[in-house]
From TrEMBL:
Entry function: Putative oxidoreductase.
InterPro entries per UniProt: KR_dom, NAD(P)-bd_dom_sf, Sc_DH/Rdtase_CS, SDR_fam
Source organism of this protein record: Gadus morhua
Family of the protein in this entry: Belongs to the short-chain dehydrogenases/reductases (SDR) family.
UniProt name for this protein: Dehydrogenase/reductase SDR family member 7B
Length: 325
């Protein structure tokens, strides 16, 4: 036994060594090429999508920018073209495709248009999304469906429409922007958290199924980002929430998150978690001590209901403690 050096400690150390070696070997792989590749970004008219457009454009990608409003997409294009005039690196003028992700027929037509533009897609970034603020008891079923249509069925439909051409070429990378709320469910976000949990599950299945064709799938799960997500969120009756929540205003710089998305594509990362300390604690708590996690969430539910009803972004002290991170 002594010669073998067995025992729990050496087993753990051996395991850690193998893990480290595995990570080092992965890092030695040459990064995926972004320059000249065709990159489709949904929700490119604002927030994280617009920042992704900036970083992938600067990296020399051929962009196809998607959104519901042609005018807003054009603003992004003009900004990128101006930046191209100032820069020294070779960039490509972006194209745009306008469609609503929640309309199944529109998504199929959009996929055909995207393929007509460039013949193929190298990277699809499913970024577009909408959030929700509401009490389940007072939420129309139509709102639960609307959030699911945009955040889950939309990306699924677009991915499935573009997948056959990727499989034929034995090449392609599908990225989806999920959320920490794809891993943990917090109160008054039922529609949003459910859509992100479904997203995580679908794209995890997809990754396993398309590996044999050489395709890559990355799920990126950020914490709060400084964008208009909370302002654009739907409430239980389908109206717009319209408030910039404190948590959103204090979130990460979307440019930093966009750089992390570029890095995920270059490194072919399978799963990227961009969690702060409290969110990380919450993730561990949910896994290792669910009873305590559920207790904390119930406390949070009581506290956030007050600021939800008044559409106030001033959180009660209990909420600040329980996770207004
Ligand atoms: N901000 C945050 O705190 C976090 C955001 N995320 C995720 O990041 C992603 C981007 O959101 P973010 O930039 O923050 O929010 P924004 O509200 O700024 O951007 C959302 C984008 O999605 C597009 N969009 C919304 N609904 C539809 C639709 N039905 N069809 C097509 N496009 C649509 C919007 O385009 P337009 O209205 O012009 O059509 C807009 O460009 C989302 O998936 C979100 O869940 C994840 C974690 C944290
Ligand atoms: C006794 C131990 C106490 C430990 C307390 C830990 C509990 C902390 C709860 C933290 C919850 C973190 C939630 C993070 C949510 C998040 O980052 O979501 C990102 C989004 O997608 C934001 O969308 P939204 O529409 O909700 O703004």
């Amino acid at each position: 036994e002594r010669v073998m050096g067995g025992g729990p400690l050496s087993l753990v150390l051996g395991g850690l060594g193998v893990l480290l070696l595995f990570r080092m070997v992965r890092r030695l792989r040459p990064g995926a090429r972004v320059r000249d590749s065709v990159v489709v970004i949904t929700g490119a008219s604002s927030g994280l999508g617009r920042e992704c457009a900036r970083v992938f454009h600067a990296a020399g990608a051929r962009l196809v920018l998607c959104g519901r409003h042609a005018g807003r997409l054009q603003e992004t294009v003009e900004e990128l073209n101006e930046a191209a005039g100032r820069g020294h690196t070779q960039t490509h003028p972006p194209s745009t495709v306008t469609f609503d992700l929640s309309e199944a027929g529109a998504v199929e037509r959009a996929a055909e248009e995207i393929l007509r533009l460039h013949g193929n897609v190298d990277v699809l970034i499913n970024n577009a999304g909408i959030s929700y603020r509401g009490n389940i008891l007072e939420t129309d079923l139509s709102v639960q469906r609307a959030v699911m249509d945009t955040n889950y069925f939309g990306p699924v439909a677009l991915t499935q429409a573009l997948l056959p051409s990727m499989v034929r070429r034995r090449s392609g990378h599908v990225v989806v922007i999920s959320s920490i709320q794809g891993r943990i469910a917090i109160p008054h976000r039922s529609a949003y958290a459910a859509s992100k949990h479904a997203t995580q599950a679908y794209f995890d299945c997809l990754r396993a199924e398309v590996e044999r064709y050489g395709l890559e799938v990355s799920v990126v799960s950020p914490g709060y980002i400084r964008t208009n997500l909370s302002r654009n969120a739907l409430t239980g009756d389908g109206s717009q929430y319209g408030v910039l929540d404190r948590t959103t205003a204090m979130g990460r710089d979307p440019a930093d998150v966009a750089r992390a998305v570029l890095e995920a594509v270059r490194r072919r990362s399978k799963d990227v978690l961009l969690a702060g300390l409290l969110a990380t604690v919450a993730l561990y708590l949910r896994t290792l001590c669910p009873a305590l996690f559920f207790k904390v969430m119930a406390m949070r539910a009581r506290s956030t209901l007050v600021c939800l009803m008044s559409r106030s972004n001033v959180h009660a002290p209990l909420t600040v403690f329980c996770g207004a991170v």
